């Protein structure tokens, strides 16, 4: 696979980054992940806006212009992709400097890394649903920044894997915030519930699209935290994410959600989302 690293397109095994890059010593950078359908980046402007916001919040002085699309097109060509379903990853760091906590000089070039790979939707999980577990949310208080420091998410994700689950849901002060790499929604009496866009969650582009689809199709959305003790009362639940789209949750902490199968409102939203993808990319 050909990747992009600091202005060069090279084979993945030949890619090199300085040990003084602050991504390596401090996880000092922001990233974005894009879904590509039919050769087109889905919700590009929304992703770009979020990416720039993360950089600004981290005080990384880098203004995104058109390089994301340029890098994407070059990686697509270099890797011989045509219309495959792809995942496009790019991160921007504060650049290289000796290891010291204060920021380097403002003229320090940012570090940029990107790759493009085939990533199909997991249809078994998409149709049959998944089991998840809950874990304490002990992350920092700026979960709204899409930064590359993800060790807490990795630890929580491994807890999920150890418990036979593909995803874990964070619980902060007794309420469900989000998944380790997803947002989470619940359904009760045909109303949708999800955590509001605060500093406790990353406002996913797929999450925001689902909320918009609900509003446009007469589905009530309540954006406020759901306490973990209410989970057993929910009729349906689902995850949203760039790679997961809308994936049903059928079990939480070993207990069935509703009937233990993908719910009807979840299925309706899956179709509405597919229609949105078709409108944007086909």
Summarize the structure.
Helix content is 28%, strand content 30%.
Molecular structure report:
The protein has 282 residues and is an alpha+beta fold. Helices cover 28% and strands 30% of the residues.
Q: How much of the residues is beta strand, in percent?
A: 25-35%
Radius of gyration: 19 Å
Number of helices: 7
On the 0 to 100 scale, the average pLDDT is 97
Task: Work out the helicity level.
Answer: 25-40%
The general outline is globular
Instruction: State the end-to-end CA separation.
Output: 26 Å
Query: How would you characterize the largest beta sheet?
Result: 10 strands, mixed
Uncertain parts: none
How would you spell out the order of helices and strands?
EEHEEHHEEHEHEEEEHEEEEEH
Q: Write down the oligomeric state.
A: single chain
- Total number of β-strand segments? 16
What class, by secondary structure content? Answer: alpha+beta
Question: Secondary structure elements and their pairing?
Answer:
Blueprint (H helix, E strand, L loop, with lengths): L1 E4 L2 E4 L10 H5 L2 E9 L2 E2 L2 H14 L9 H12 L7 E8 L17 E8 L4 H6 L1 E7 L14 H12 L4 E6 L2 E5 L3 E6 L2 E4 L10 H12 L4 E3 L2 E2 L8 E6 L3 E8 L2 E2 L7 H18 L1
Parallel strand pairs: 7-8, 7-15, 11-12
Antiparallel strand pairs: 1-2, 1-6, 3-4, 3-5, 5-6, 8-9, 9-13, 10-11, 10-14, 14-15, 15-16
């Amino acid at each position: 696979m050909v990747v992009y690293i600091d202005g060069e397109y090279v084979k993945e095994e030949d890619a090199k980054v300085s040990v003084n890059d602050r991504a390596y010593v401090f996880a000092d950078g922001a990233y974005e992940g894009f879904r590509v359908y039919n050769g087109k980046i889905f919700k590009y402007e929304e992703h770009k806006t979020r990416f720039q916001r993360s950089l600004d919040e981290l005080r990384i002085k880098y203004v995104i212009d058109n390089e994301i699309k340029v890098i994407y097109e070059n990686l697509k060509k270099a890797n011989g992709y045509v219309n495959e379903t792809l995942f496009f990853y790019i991160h921007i760091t504060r650049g290289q400097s000796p290891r010291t906590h204060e920021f380097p000089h403002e003229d320090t070039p940012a570090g940029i890394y990107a790759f493009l790979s085939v990533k199909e939707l997991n249809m078994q999980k998409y149709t049959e649903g998944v089991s998840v577990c809950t874990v304490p949310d002990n992350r920092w208080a700026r979960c709204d920044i899409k930064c590359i420091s993800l060790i807490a998410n990795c630890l929580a994700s491994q807890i999920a894997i150890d418990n036979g689950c593909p995803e874990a849901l964070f619980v902060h002060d007794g309420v469900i915030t989000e998944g380790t790499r997803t947002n989470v929604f619940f359904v009760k009496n045909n109303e949708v519930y999800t955590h509001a866009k605060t500093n406790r969650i990353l406002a996913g582009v797929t999450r925001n699209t689902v909320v918009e689809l609900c509003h446009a199709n007469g589905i009530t959305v309540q954006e406020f935290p759901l306490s973990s003790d209410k989970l057993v009362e929910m009729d349906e639940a689902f995850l949203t994410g760039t790679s997961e789209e809308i994936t049903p949750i059928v079990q939480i902490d070993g207990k069935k959600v509703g009937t233990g199968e993908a719910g009807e409102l979840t299925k309706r939203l899956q179709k509405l989302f597919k229609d949105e993808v078709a409108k944007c990319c086909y």
